[in-house]
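U., I forgot to send this yesterday:
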Amino acid sequence: MDTKKYAPGIVKYIPFLYVVWADNLLSASEISVFKKAVENDTLTQAEKDRVNSWLRPGNPPEDEVITSWKQLIDASGVKLLESDNYPLTAFSQRLFSNENDGSGPDENLKFIEINLGIQPNHYRHLFDVRTDKVPTTDFYDPLQIDLVLKGAHAPHIDKFRKLLSDPLFQWNIQRDKDAFRIRTLEQVKLLASHGYGAMAYDKAYGGIGNMPAYAGIFENLMYVDGSLTIKFGVQFGLFGGSIQNLGTKKHHDQWLKATGEAKILGCFAMTETGHGSNVRGIKTTATYVRETGTIVIDTPGKNDNKEYIGNALHARMATVFAQLIVNGTNEGVHAILVPVRDENGDLMPGVRIEDNGYKLGLNGVDNGKIWFSNVSVPRENLLDRFGRIDGNGNYQSDISNPNKRFFTMLGTLVGGRICVAKGALSGAKMALAIAVKYALYRRQFNSGEKVQEDLIMDYPSHQLRLIAPIALTYVYHITLDHMIRSYASSTEETRRQTETQAAALKALITDFSNTTIQECREACGGKGYLLENRIGDLKNDVDIFTTFEGDNTVLLQLAAKGVLTDFKSEFNSDHFGDILKLLGTQLSDRLTTFNPLFTNNTDKDHLFDPGFHLEALQYRTRRLTFTAASRIRSYLKKGVPSQQVSLNIQTHLITLGKTYGAMLSYEIFSGFVENMADKRLQFLFRKLGALYALMYIRDNAAWYLEHGYISSNKSKAIRQRVERLCTELRPHVASLVDGYGIPEHCLTAPIGKK
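Result:
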């Protein structure tokens, strides 16, 4: 090709044209991106027509033309610098000058490079590449992304992150649990001295009455250490939270301020060896003795002890959950404050505590077993917000139904469940940040002796395994922030729905976090297996998050039953219009499902449409809800006992719980993105949301195909779009993990610092 035949304005597009046609990156829906750049250029109309003549998907350039472009590029002698912020743009501008004129990147070329997601793995085998440093892009400012994630609590979080630079929070390998526990306790006390433990408490008790801000602090603790996060949560969230949420003013005045200052260390004694998830079935008793005005706590059997209780080896006080017996009547599970040690640290009479010993992770947390043998406490130690013993020794409650009272009591503790999900998500963020930073300098394999080995971040498989979960972390972060605000402002009437939502999200997100951390470990190869690189400890610490604050399998069933309760209320409504609305929804689902224009639509705009994403997630939730309700009704009509019915549809309920959590997450995230003021960041977040939704549909493609919701061609197109979105987000991967806001002094993994 004779370059003199082309004006420089045309020639600068030739490297882009060669890349997209050589690798078949250009699809019909993406032609508009290229044409928009050309249209905005200062080329003459004839020059624009010439470039556009090579942008016809139905009539691509001849092979000879594409080969001549390659010859032109090779003959130029220009090297593509991978260290440029926009490598292909800079290369095209240098093509005939061999020098950078300092004018910055051509905006039209940059527009194509960014929006088509052109990556080094697309051109490294095509051009002579020279690498001087790790490639980065400054298109999105990580500080601005972090500001979005911090939200209204930015001042609190920024101040807190600075405190984490204190040498006491410096991470190191800990293998002596006794020394580890002492250090963790010192860290908790330091945080308390700065007021962070009491943030969720009212001002009168040393706090600022801000539960969402406390949750923001909690999730940042995972960047220091998992053990610190959990011990902090046990002391101030579980123990302090039980006093705050289950107690009344007399308890607050006596205990809450000292708890927030860590002057009184406490534990949360709910779980028993014989009864884990089934709190209502616990065996520990709390018997009121009218003659003495006391409550006697007792562990009746060998396996009725409190099990796996955090802070057990350090605590002076325990919130003990027990069957409250008043005047011979079991009033159900209540919480009682019980001293377990005196001021000298010696066990109180009748209290026995044993160390749980070494665990898979979190060995800086002093978990233990606790037995009570006729331990007597004053009647006033009953946390009596929902049930009390009056001066005459009679039980009273404003909630007459024992089941409703029990679930109302547990509902006040849902904030801890949300915080657990936040902590797990931070563990995933930390692992992703380490894995991505490693992937941005680690090279492996090449396509020829003259070509430098490729960055592993440029392999499509590596992008899929790391960038897809990055998108999920952003969706889940926004979702959990919304949930903690909803919880903080909820009433007793709205708390049941919050509990349903928190149950689904806790299960969904802790499971995701464990899977992601394992993926990061593998993505870092042998380096990820070294303790110094942090992923191993993250993996072991976050593992248990799927179990405590509610076993995930149980929580998913709880969430599904909450969804079915709402469905039942609608279905059994006396309003005929509600029934028609429900039936109309089912009819609409069928029409949508079998509409070939919908099931076969593979257009890019449709696949990226939030409306399509939301409809797909809502459709699956509706369908699973309707079929679960239908199965229940069918079994009950046959006289099958309700307990057996639950077992018969258990796996159905678990699937419904997961689907509901995914739908809820996308609903919240898409609503948040719609209201973003920064349009540049909004574009990025929309891509993250699209990747989340398409990943979900891809992972559940079998179900959608079975129900005729998508065709096989659409399923294939969705799979391709997932991979393409990962490619498009590749230039911004460093900004996305830096946007987590992980303090530099917490990123101590050697592989994340080169």
